Amino acid sequence: MQALRIICTPEMEEEFRAIANKRKIINDPLYGFINFPSPVIYDLIDHPWFQRLRRIRQLGLTFYVYPAANHTRFQHALGAAHLMNTALEVISRKGYQVSDEERDAAIAAILLHDIGHGPFSHALEHSIVETIGHETISGLFMEKLNKASGGALDLAIRIFDDCYSRSFLHQLVSSQLDMDRLDYLNRDSFFTGVTEGMVGSERIIKMLKVVDDQLVVERKGIYSIEKYLISRRLMYWQVYLHKTVIAAEQMLVKALSRARELAYNGVDLWATPVLHEFLFPGALSDRPMDDPDHLLEQFSKLDDTDIFSSIKVWVDHPDRVLSMLSEGLLNRKLSGIRIAKTPWDANLIEHLQKRLVNEFGFSQHEAEYLVFTDKVSNSTYAENEDQILLFENSGQLITLSEASDIINVSLLSKADSKFFLCFPKWLFAKNYTNIFS
User: Based on CB atoms within 10 Å of each CB, which residue in 3, 94, 302, 425 is the most buried?
Assistant: First the structure.
């Protein structure tokens, strides 16, 4: 029997692809099987720029403390997009109409909200492209994708930039109670094993409501909101700003800074081709916004692999500062770190740096790469910004600070700062506790 041959036109192939995309499911460890309502979303997921997020760790160097924290920005973006889809379904069921176009645009906006992250996420936020944050680069990527698609992301960009009339859609993307935070708290908690970070995202989403174009929470959901804020505070100090994570990430920042200094001084330095573009003198290092297209072309090739591939080579570099930092990162020989509530005494820092100079032969400039101080801050809730509003049965809207009798909202709104001091552990052959007492 002669085989049946089907001839497909380009239009038919596109239709078949769209149908196949609609049937795709993704197995997520937090939410189980998830899917998305539009083939446009799957086209974005399939794009090489989004696929790059598979190679960007969500939590930077946190795996040095929590070994399983190797999840990626790709996983987080999918999770946040799933929560967005779920939230819009809840809002629609409560009688607040959301069109298919708005739904797809909001999902696309949160799917792409992290596409501008560089290697190791926040750890190298200003070390690769020094003058530009990931939000700006995300916006550039979205504009470029929009242009290539003939304006398919127009509404998504307006929602992302908070330029659309229905502001609750932007609140779902970026606010003090957005789908981004709901996903990363649970996902980071899951992969680190820090159970204090788990929040009731499903219940919170079921309690969402839109009133006067604002995203609000039904009054009976207040306990879930209180737990959410407390979990966020705990995750910052137990995971995101854990002192050993700070030490590791500071070593990485210093290694990249030293590598760039050597490159600008004409020292022979190996780096992957794309990292070379950002380290050595040139437009991407000095004036990255002069040619945004070139910036995106090169940045889209850069990921965690480039950094650690280069660090493995730098272990054997003749510059001992770069070599020392790189070897410490490669083999987890991390800097010592001490945390204080007040700034460190400048005399102590000078003393430690002088020991490196006098006893170990470092220059003063080199010593500043190894002994240094800075601060980290965390504010759990910004009371004076877009507050979380609760909807009373009477129809009245009240602020979280008015409704909560468990948490001190004003206290959570204050920036909690801690000062750290980093130093080589080998500077103290035996016990280095006494000098800090």
Answer: 302
Q: Architecture of domain 18-241 in CATH?
A: Orthogonal Bundle (1.10)
Distance CA 367, CA 231 (A): 38
Measured over all CA atoms, what is the biggest interatomic distance in the chain, rounded to whole angstroms?
A: 91
Q: pTM of the prediction?
A: 0.91
Structure confidence by residue, pLDDT tens digits, 72-116: 999 999 999 999 999 999 999 999 999 999 999 999 999 999 999
Q: Tell me the CATH architecture of domain 243-377+419-436.
A: Up-down Bundle (1.20)
Residue 390 CB contacts under 8 Å (≥ 6 apart), including other chains:
216, 217, 218, 219, 221, 222, 225, 397, 398, 399, 400, 403
Which residue, chain included where needed, has tokens 């509530």?
341
For residues 424-429, average pLDDT: 86
Structure tokens at 393: 């049965």
Domain boundaries, the chain: 18-241, 243-377+419-436
To the nearest whole number, what is the mean pLDDT of the chain? 91
